[in-house]
Amino acid sequence: MKSRLAALLADVARGEEIAITRHGKVIARLIPEPERRAADAFASVWDSDEAFDIEAPQDRPPADVAPID
């Protein structure tokens, strides 16, 4: 059973959706996890009708750098 599960998971990792059946009836599905991007975390903010204001912090002055000599 473990080797069959490993093969099924490999198929899912390649993008396949696997239907698990019992007596010809689907009881579960193995589906690939959708690819997430950093922008997905902010989707609800960007899609919102509410206005929001974001202010960037002031740039820090450059730090002194020691000479390489």
Automatic annotation (TrEMBL):
Q: Which InterPro entries match?
A: YefM-like_sf
SUPFAM superfamilies in the record: YefM-like
| Top-level taxon of the source organism | Bacteria
> Family assignment?
Belongs to the phD/YefM antitoxin family.
Name it.
Answer: Prevent-host-death family protein
